[in-house]
Structures are given as structure tokens and as C-alpha cells.
Amino acid sequence: MMAYADLILPLPLANTFTYEIPEKISDVEKGMRVVVQFGAKKLYTALVYEVHQNAPDKYRAKPILAVLDDYPVVVSSQFSFWEWIAAYYCCHLGEVMQAALPSGLKLSSETIIIPGESNFKPDELTDKEYLIIEALQQQNKLELIEVAKILDQKTIFPVINSLLDRGAIALLEELNDKYKPKIVRTVHLATKEEQLSEVIEKTQKAPKQLAVLQSYLQQKSKHPEQSVKTADLVRWASTTHQSLNALVKKGVFSIEEEIIGRLENYKNPIEEEKELSVAQSTAYQSIQNSFKEKDVVLLHGVTSSGKTEIYVKLIKETIAKGEQILFLLPEIALTTQIINRLRKYFGDQVGVYHSKFNQNERVEVWNEVLKGNRFPIILGARSAMFLPFTKLGLVIIDEEHETTFKQHHPAPRYNGRDAAVVLAKSQGAKVLLGSATPSLESYTNAHNGKYGLVELHERFGGVEMPEVETVDIKYVRHRKQMKGAFSPYLLENIQQALDKGEQIILFQNRRGFAPISECKDCGWTAKCRSCDVSLTYHKKIDLLKCHYCGYSEAPLKKCSSCGSLEVSVKGVGTEKIAEDLQPFFPDAAIHRMDLDTTSRKHAHQEIISAFEDKRIDILIGTQMVTKGLDFDNVSVVGVLNADSMLNFPDFRSFERAYQLMAQVSGRAGRKKKRGKVIIQTYSPDNDIIEAVKKNDYRGMFKAEMSERKNFSYPPYCKLIKVTAMHKDYQLTNYAARDLAIIMRQQFGKNVLGPEYPTVARIKNKFLKHILLKIEGGSSAQQAKNQLQYFIEQLDKNKEYKSVRFILDVDPV
After folding, report:
1. Residue 250 near residue 180, CB atoms below 8 Å
2. Are the CB atoms for 637 and 428 separated by under 8 Å?
3. Which of 80, 101, 527, 812 could share a disulfide with 403, CB 3.0–4.6 Å?
């Protein structure tokens, strides 16, 4: 009987697709990767979702072209998790597959241009067509990107289509395997040991060859199990490959190629875990007791209360039970310190998985987790939850309040924290959420009894919480005492800290040099051509850049509106803060930590290591410096402008402002000395700033919950944000208006909008938002299904066919 397989394709398609399993292909299992043709010619890596004997009714099944695996690379429990994500976050299984699998496991074909078989007259070709034919005569095949370079233009398809019509070229789909195993050349002794004395004697007159042989023997005597790489051996012997090759020719050595892993081994000795303090021991026991009744426990501990030591003890117990641990962090920057801490106790048992790893490294981590032997502990950002766990016992989500756990683009637009809780439940694992400033949703769940709650109210070692002071910028400016972005009081405290050999962190939540380039005469500002946003000036590279689409241009010396030469920059970003601060402290080492300075693979680690080693005196950063970093020599923290956080138009702005200021305050005075935090603000009496000064999380929680209840916002309801998107302004308006009308017929006053967001155009697409509130007692899934149905109905209108609607469940 003919066999078939339902496949998931890595595309935003609603269904699986049935393909025929040819007789020559056997042992196809759920979770294996296969190569299939989809559409006219394109080849894809698909995942086997189900194997059966049922031929499709409405179309003839195409055959599977190849099976890529000897065993499943995706386990059954992962498919269940993917299905939940697709249903909850209103997306397709193909989109979840695209997010879940490392790119090295996803093969796709590339269109290649080859010479055609038809005879054509060269003199009938245009100049551009002739360039392509000439290149094909030299290279025999061309990639599309090469054609674009030859023609020196982006739009190449009119030229290609013209050549196709003439039969001068043909198109071919070539499958690319993205994962490349790392291969090294290793040296092996080809001579019998009893003949070594004779060989050594014969090489006495060739000292470089003798050095190679002696270096090899020394290394093998120390580490007999380890392979010797050719490059290492030549380096140890202080010679060249020529000397080694001479010994190979003589039959002394043989050279082999070996596949090795890219993942680093931990070389330092393993340390014993630290003994917990009384407060930590009490918290640890409370967590264990809560786990007997609850699947999820929230550990609310003030900054520097010693949560990590509790994590370590829980991890050790989980490993002893033969189970796996997933340790999630919101930022890659945080992984540097926590990796070092965990590896001190667990060595090579800790695996790391995040987007700064290249595709080959991520594939190797995936395969190690699949085997279930090498890495019982996986530490990473949100994407680490998609790894093929089979024995998950504990999930730790540190800094659980962070909004960076949320994926914004592309789909699935999932929240890593919430999805990880569901993942843990599906595998019978426990979840520990950790934060000094929990999200209102998590703290509500803990107070309602859905989660367990354990609290640490004091810092480890009896260190006092930092002293938080405010500077009224309005008052200081009125007295003309501000020095750029710095108050005299902040500068004075920075100087005192430097004099004592202590370090300083300054928080400015805007990167770049200056956010606005403005004409003083007419008020014109430099804006992005594709987005409704001002261009930010970056002085180091002397460019105006858009932080939404990446567009850049040289700064204008003359106003493009009135021709005035009075064009200057306004506002301050981290780059300008660093430049303006240096003259006050010329001997201080000042460094930035923002998206611009951490774009390289190891940049986070280099900056953090330099600060830990006290090679940086003052660290200026965006939100990156607020998140869980632990530096024992920081005595002063400065918040340069608190008002930009307080005045943001979002119902969560006060909650986030408290979290950011409380977290960055927590970087001060973390060991034996009390730190100081200086908040510069125009609103020193603001309730949120007062709560930060008193370290009063509960006061903030109570006030914010009252507001949320009055206006029916989370956690008192669920939110779904619908975004209408199109390059035509009016069409975006009409589509959003008509969808909102349909939604109001079903959901009434729980539909807000449509309205334009703060940035209403991105990459030449206009945006309009509609917000749906789903109140307690209503079925969230039913509301999602109805909303998707409404969009499908609107999509049938030819006028709105090209309008894209994006659903964002639980937006942050």
C-alpha cells in the first residue's frame, strides 16, 4: 500500500501538506526532515508531521525527494508545544517551525541562472542582457545576487525575463546545506613504536623534522586520548608544514580529517557551591514546599539578595534526578556573567544557545540536547525553549518581568516567559520565576494562589539598599547650573567615586549621539524617507540613521526646506553623553553599552569583562545596563532623565519606569558598601519616583492595579492588538475602519481604535492599530477564532486583498 506523509513547510500557510513516500525511501518517521518541491520549482526542507496511508482528495501528492535524517530531529512533545503556540498566538505551524529550528537545519533552494538551449542572435541583445550572457560564458552559472552586481542595479527581473523569453538562459533550483561540520586535519603515528628509535636516529640531521616528531611524542605522552591537530603541532615545533609533510612522505606520520565540535570546553577547576545564608535557606525550603502544590513559583527578591545561589542549589538537585534544566534570560548581555557563574559549579554540563551563536554552533547545541547527554543545563534567550528537550525537570526564568522575552517580529509573536510555563507543564517540569521587580501579571498570579510566592526582602550579606536621591532638573536649569545633561550634584558624586577607585553606571535610554537634526530658522527636521520618525545622528560614523529600518544618510550642512546653514543636532543619546562627560573626567576610562557597541558576537562579553576587571571607570548604557548585571565596585548610579520613561504613551509606562529605575538602582553598592543612586527629573514628586526611593514595590503594585482595574487593562483582561498595514495611506485607513466596525458588532465597547501608533509609517508601510479587550469570563480562544474569521472575510474583498493584518496576542 502507498504511504503518505503530512508535512510542515517553513511558510506562513494554514495547513500541512500531504506528500507521497516513494518506495525507494523507507523508514520515514515523524520529526524527520525531508526535501520536497513546493510550487513550480522551489525546494524546501519540510518536517514530517504524520505518516499514514491516506491519499489526498483534492490534489495528486508530489513525491518526497529525499530524507535528510537517520532519526527524528524534532521530538513528539515539541509538536504539541508548537501546536499550542500556533493556536494561542494566532499563527501557522510553518511560522513556528521557522522560529524553532536553527537555520542550519533548514535547507532551501536558491535560483541559479544557467545557459539556455535555444539559439539566439547576440546582436539582438541589449547591453545589459549581453553582460549576463558574457558572464555565463565565463562562469557557466550565476546566482541572482551576482546578476545584481553585474548590472549594478536591484531590479534585475525584467532583464532575466527577457533572456528567458529568448531561450538564452534557463533557471535551476540548487539546494543549499547551511550546516557545515567543522573539519580539522590531525596527525597520527604511522610507524610502529619499536621503530621509533631508528626513526629518531635518521632525523638527527633534519632538526626541524626532529622537533616535529619530539613535539608530537611529548603531547601524546601527556594526553594520549587527544588527537593532535596539524596546525598545533607545527606551532609547538616552531616550524612549518613543510617539515611535517616531509615526515608524512617518509611514512612516519599519516594525516586524517576529523569532524570536531565548535562548542568550547570549560577548562577551569569546578568549585563547590556556596553555603546559603539563613534567608536564602529559608527561601530555598519555601520554594521546595511550594513545588509540592504549585507548578510555578515566583521568587521575588530585592536586587543582590542572592537569587543565583538558590538557582544553583535547585539545578544541582534536578541534575541528580537525571533531568534537564532550561535557564532563560531576557538579554544576551546577561548570559556572560551567569555562564561564568554556572560553569564554575557545573563545568561542561552548561550549554548556551542564543542568536549571537552562528548557525553551525546552534545546530551542534541542538544535536547535543537531542542526544540528552552532554548538556543537562541549557542557558539562553527565549529561542532556547524550542530545543528538543525530553527530560525537562526545571525551568528558571530570570528577570521574568522583562519585555524582551516578547518576540515582536516576525510571527510567532510569543512571550518567552508565558510559553516556557506551558512548555514546562507539558513535560511535567517545575517553573521558577525570578525578579526584583515582578511583572504585575506574575505578582497577581502569585497573590491569587495560581503561583507560589517566595520573597527575599534583604540583600545578601546584610548590605544596605542603595540611597536614592533626586535632582530637580527644572530647579537646577532655572539657576543655570546644569552642565549639559549633568547636574553639579551628579558630577560631584562621580568625582568622589573616581577618587576612591570606585565605578559608575549612567543610564540614558537613547542610543546614538543626538535624536534630532533640526533647522534653527524654520524648524525642519531630518526624517527617514521610509518611516515616520526622525533620523538619529551617530557622530562616530558621521551618519544620520533610522533605528526602525536601518536607512542612513550623510548629515546635511544646509536645510533642505529653507536653505539655511543653521542646522544643528538636538537631544542627547549615549554617544553624546560619553563625549560630553569626558572633559569633566579626562583621566577616566568611559565606555558605552548599547546596541551600537554590542553588535559584534563577543562585544557584550568584552565590555562586561572590561568593567569587571576595572578597565572601565564609567559605563554609560541604555536598558542593557539595568538588567541583572552584578558588579561589586559600583558605588554611584545616575539616571540622566527619568521623565522620558514616565511620559511614554502606554498603560504600562509607570510599571516599566519603576522596573527600569529600581533595576538600575540595584547595580549600586552590591557588596560591602552602600551605593548611591541619583535620579535627574523634572518631576521629583512623582509617585513612581517616590516608590523607587523607598524601594516600595508593593506600593507601586497596589496603585497600578487600582488604575488597571478602573480602566480594564491587564491583568484584569487579555489584549489582542490588530495592526492594519499597507503602503497606501487611505487604504490602510479604510481597511482598519471596516474591520473595527465588524469587531464592534461582536465585541462592542471592548474594541478601541483604530488609531495611529506613535510611529505610523515603517518601511513605507502605513500602520493603524485596533485593540481588543477580552474580559474575564469570556473565552479568549473563541474571540481569537472570531477575529481571524473577520479578517478572512475582509480579505475576500478585492479592495483589501493587499492589506496585511497582524495579530499580536498579549502585546507588551
Report:
1. no
2. no
3. 812
Domain 467-510+572-707 -> CATH class: alpha beta
The CB density around residue 520, as the number of other CB atoms within 10 Å, is: 13
Residue 807 grid cell: 495579530
Find out whether 684 and 665 touch, Cβ atoms under 8 Å.
Answer: no
CA–CA separation, 87 vs 782, rounded Å?
11
Q: What is the pLDDT of residue 500?
A: 94
Give 131's contacts (C-beta < 8 A, 6+ positions apart): 150, 151
- Nearest to 227, CA basis, from 239, 235, 236, 219: 219
Share above pLDDT 90 across residues of the chain, in percent, rounded to a whole number = 56
Show Cβ contacts of residue 629 under 8 Å, excluding neighbours closer than 6 positions: 333, 334, 337, 608, 667
pLDDT in tens, 427-450: 999 999 999 999 999 999 999 999
Q: Could you give the CA distance from residue 227 to residue 258 in angstroms, rounded to a whole number? A: 9
User: What is the CATH code of the structural domain delimited by 109-176?
Assistant: 1.10.10
How many residues are present in the chain?
812
Q: How many other C-beta atoms lie within 10 A of the C-beta of residue 628?
A: 23
C-alpha cell at 62: 508530489
Helix 207-222 and helix 241-249, axial crossing angle in degrees, nearest 10: 90
CATH for 278-461 is: 3.40.50.300
Q: Which CATH number fits the domain 3-107, given the four candidates 3.40.1440.60, 3.30.70.2190, 3.30.230.20, 2.130.10.10?
A: 3.40.1440.60
C-alpha cell at 345: 559549579
Mean pLDDT, rounded, of the chain: 90
Which amino acid is present at 242?
Q
Q: Please, which residues have CB within 8 angstroms of residue 696's CB and are 6 or more apart in sequence? A: 690
| pLDDT per position as a tens digit, 45-70 | 899 999 999 998 888 999 998 898 88
The answer to whether 297 touches 291, Cβ cutoff 8 Å, is yes
Return the residue matching grid coordinates 514616565. Answer: 646
Report how far residue 574's alpha carbon sits from residue 580's, in angstroms, rounded to the nearest whole number: 10
Q: How far is CA 92 from the centre of its chain?
A: 21
From the number of C-beta atoms within 10 Å of its C-beta (0-12, 13-18, 19+), residue 101 rates as buried
CB count in 10 Å sphere of residue 354: 18
Q: CB–CB of 417/405 below 8 Å?
A: yes
- Assign domain 717-809 one CATH number from 3.40.250.10, 3.30.70.600, 3.40.50.300, 3.40.50.1220: 3.30.70.600
Q: How far is C-alpha 572 from the chain's CA centre?
A: 27
- Sign of the torsion angle spanned by Cα atoms 554, 555, 556, 560: positive
Position 540 pLDDT exceeds 70: yes
Contact 412, 91 (CB under 8 A): yes
Phi-psi label, residue 763: left if phi above 0, alpha if psi -120 to 50, beta otherwise:
left
Q: What pTM was estimated for this model as a whole?
A: 0.84
Amino acid at residue number 174: E
